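STRUCTURE REQUEST FORM
Protein name: Shikimate kinase
Source organism: Streptomyces anandii
Requested output: structure tokens
Priority: standard
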Amino acid sequence: MGVGKSTVGLLLAERLGAGYRDTDDDIVAAEGRTIADIFVEEGEPAFRAIEKRAVRRALAEHDGVLALGGGAVLDEDTRALLGPLPVVYLSMDVEEAVRRTGLNVARPLLAINPRKQWRELMEARRHLYEEVATAVVATDGRGPEEVAGAVLDALELKEA
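Status: completed
Returned output:
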């Protein structure tokens, strides 16, 4: 959350001459409401089912840069689909997350005690991110252009 996946993803797509897609955007467009609203109205399990379908559909339809929501890797089937693909885990520490996002309440999983919640989410998810990642790129103290360059280097990709 707040790591810059959308900004970096767009930069990568541009540099590679590829399309860009974000499954969070797909979900909002298909559902006609925000992710926060889905969480509030239907709960996290319902959102995760929607997310799983959105990721599966995007992986089948899109061959460019794809950004996934932070919880997508919680699903075992999704992790299996990501296995053969180049996947980058953009990492950052909690202080960087606070600086970038303020850990505000627009993020449903961080609504109460954001720093503690962020740390707990990362502790629960980090091993899953690392499991599917072809490369891990730290974003702390780096701008989007620098992160995009580090991703290209990590994946040994050439710009278009």
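Reviewer notes: The chain is about 60% helix and 10% strand. The helical segments are 5-16, 23-31, 35-42, 44-61, 76-82, 94-101, 114-132, 144-155.
Form closed.
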